[in-house]
Amino acid sequence: MRGIFHPRPLNGCAWTVSGVPTSTRCVLHSLVCRAPESSAPASKSHRRWFWEAAICDPHHYDLLLQSCSSDLDALKRIHSSLTTSGLIRGRPRLSSRVIFNYSGLGMLDDARSLFDALDCRDSFVWNTLIRGYANAGSSQEALQLYALMHNSAVPSDNFTFPFALKACATASQLLEGKLIHGQILRTGFGSDAYVEAGLVDMYAKCGDVRAARKVFDKMFRRDLVSWTAMITGYEQSECADDSLEMFLKMQKEGFVPDCVTLVTVASAVAQLGALKEAKSIHACVIRNGFEEDLSVDNSLVSMYARCGDVGLARRVFDRMSDRDRISWNSMLSGYSQNGHTRDSLLLFDQMKLSGVKPNSVTVLTVVSACACLGSLQVGKAIHRFIIDNGIEFDNTLRNAIVDMYAKCGDLDTAVQLFETMHERNTSSWNVIICSYGMHGYGKDAVALFYRMQDDGFEPNHVTFTCLLSACSHAGLVDKGRECFYLMRRTGVVPTVKHYACMVDMLGRAGFLDEARNLIAEMPSQPNDSVWGALLGACRIHRNLGLGEYAANNLFHLEPDHAGYYVLMSNVYAASGKWKEVGKLREIMRFKGLKKPAACSMIEFDGEVHAFYSSDRSCPDLGPLYRQAETLVMEIRGLGYLPDRSCVLHDVEDEDKEHILSFHSEKLALAFGLMHTSPGTPIQVTNNLRVCCDCHIVFKFISNMYRRKITLRDSNRFHHFEKGVCSCRDYW
Predict the structure, then answer these.
(1) Vertex 343, ends 340 and 347: CA angle to 5°?
(2) Which of 192, 165, 166 is nearest to 180 (CA)?
(3) Where do the domains of the chain lie?
(4) 29 membership: H or E segment, kind and range
(5) In 3D, which of 176, 217, 215, 173 has the Cα closest to residue 198?
(6) Looking at the whole model, is its pTM more than 0.85?
(7) What does the pLDDT look like over 96-112, one tens digit per residue?
(8) By the 8 A CB rule, do 50 and 9 touch?
(9) Strand, helix or coil at 338?
(10) From edge to edge, which strands make up the β-sheet containing 724-725?
């Protein structure tokens, strides 16, 4: 190699490179930038010789900078050499390359320092730093630099605008985006393909899909990026139908979707909950060879789960060759959102064994699953897991844990955790107000509402929903009316949920006419929850005429909701209208509707045991049924009389009593008495509203066996002790 180096003094450098072929220079770049430091004098001398030979050719600097894009140490040495030689000031392309490399390595402060030190800054230099800021997510810095460029009279070009627009999109700065759009039109770059794509993306991500579509429709040439930006804009604006329609148009024009497009359209289908379209998207994934793409697989799991088919979601999940935390979280959320809480907890155990570390999103999902299941022992174990593994407690997770303890029956721990919170937000207050309400402590919930305001927190629509529900459970009608009218004074407009709470509260208390008048005064159309609350009140007070009026509205709004047919049949049965009961059952059979099976659960020895009413499918249930019969016989001697009105069948009284003996609540209670020590509290969770007969039996058992018994039904908690229920027989 001796012949290709020639001595030529230049700015203090002893050697320069001349006539070196490109292949040889590339070898030299590698040696200069990547050769390890050595303590040997010969090695150091050799390295210095290569370096001194390389640094005096500006073209060679550019090649060196290209090869050192990921080596910060080499970059700083080259930067130092350029500064010493003075080349950094006179050659914008070299300075831009240094700025670009600093930006790529995340050293934006170094990039900005170099930029500020330059005397000569052309558009290329400005564009490079704006690009660096935009790609790093430093949107405000990018926009400030763009404004400075504009004020410095440096002309913007088709490389400037896309990155300025990207910064607007990242920061959702619609106004700034519109101003840049105006500058684009004034400078004549409105028809540039990259600028147009940037405009579509900016408007879409800022939520103005109409403006995005207007630009998109005027584009002369559309690429996959433009189509994907438009599809994403519709999806993020919750215009899922438009997003799916745009995806189909894109395919008709011959564009093949990439992984980004497929992830977006899967999310749009998930919003629609359209299982048929979900299967079509899955087929498209397979046709285009993306079934091994991790992000696409994760989106398929989430899509199927949100469409209600956890079976297909699990099949995709099980077939994945690689799973990350998002994969596990998506499947966990799918189980939890579809009511498969036990499967969610089992999958969480598998995740821990897989080596994938759960994060705050993971534990938030399983905490919510525990709350739904009412599993206190499992909930405590997960709480310990969070602490032991150092998972960060943000407000959302803290609130979820408070909610979990309350819904698992441990209100004392929920209150203790709330009181020891260092930071509370409005959601924290909403959770604890709701907790007191569901346990029947309406006065405490109201007191917390006023304390919340004294502490400087403004109630929102969720606060008033929790508060009105608490008043309803406790029968605090006057206080509920007061709170309802207080809403407007605090700037919260009553929604359908608030009217439903009011109808429920008034109806439970027997103010049926007032409830009906309130419905008539609603500013919007009442939904099924409003009419359902009125029908429930008619069942309690046996108002057949008003019940039929509410049911007719319900059947019109929700013609395939089995629960409303069952509720109306309860009203008919309570009035002895067995012919009408039969008609409703015939309608249900014709529609293929089934009454939800009553299921009660009890936790014992770390497992949740479920029982169904009159279920004799398991041969091991014989002793349990005998225990349930024994309990009924024992409390008969204390004055218990079965409430036969709870049996909605036109059968003999003896058969009704037999049916009552094996309600799921009684089976779960019998299991608890059989397997726990005397004096141990018992907690039962029921998926439906507890019937009057089971409520009576629980009171008798709590007194006879000296047990504290907690029952959580679909509406609230009942705490039984010494023959008395916390609800005071008002539920």
Answers:
(1) 140
(2) 165
(3) 1-118, 121-221, 247-322, 328-401, 511-595, 599-725
(4) helix 22-34
(5) 215
(6) no
(7) 788 888 888 888 888 88
(8) no
(9) coil
(10) 607-612, 599-604, 682-686, 709-712, 717-721, 724-725
Arch. (CATH architecture) of 511-595: Alpha Horseshoe (1.25)
Rounded distance between C-alpha atoms, residue 502 and residue 530, angstroms: 9
**Euclidean distance between CA atoms 501 and 603, whole angstroms:** 31
The overall longest dimension of the chain from CA atoms, in Å, is: 117
**Distance linking the first and last C-alpha atoms of the chain:** 95
Among 221, 299, 211, residue whose Cα is nearest residue 258: 299
In 3D space, the residue among 497, 475, 498, 476 whose CA is nearest the CA of residue 485 turns out to be 498
CB–CB of 423/435 below 8 Å? Answer: no
Mean pLDDT, residues 364-370 = 95
Task: Tell me whether strands 724-725 and 709-712 are parallel, antiparallel or unpaired.
Answer: unpaired
In this structure, of 33-37, 127-131, 687-691, 706-710, the range with the lowest mean pLDDT score is 33-37
Q: Tokens in use for 11?
A: 């700015």
Percent of the chain with pLDDT over 70: 89
Helices (H), 475-606: 477-489, 496-508, 512-520, 528-541, 544-557, 562-574, 578-591
Q: Quote the tokens at residue 652.
A: 């003999």
Element (H, E) at 604: strand 599-604
Tokens of 169: 């999109």
Using DSSP, state whether 325 is helix, strand or coil. Answer: helix
The amino acid at residue 11 is N
Give residue for tokens 């020590």: 677
Q: CA 224, CA 183: separation in Å to the nearest integer?
A: 26
Instruction: Find the length of the chain.
Output: 731
Read off the amino acid at residue 524. Answer: S
3-class SS of residue 348: helix
Helix (H, G, I), strand (E, B) or coil at 623: helix
Is the sign of the CA dihedral 98, 104, 110, 113 positive or negative? Answer: positive
Whole-angstrom Cα distance, residue 402 to residue 604? 22
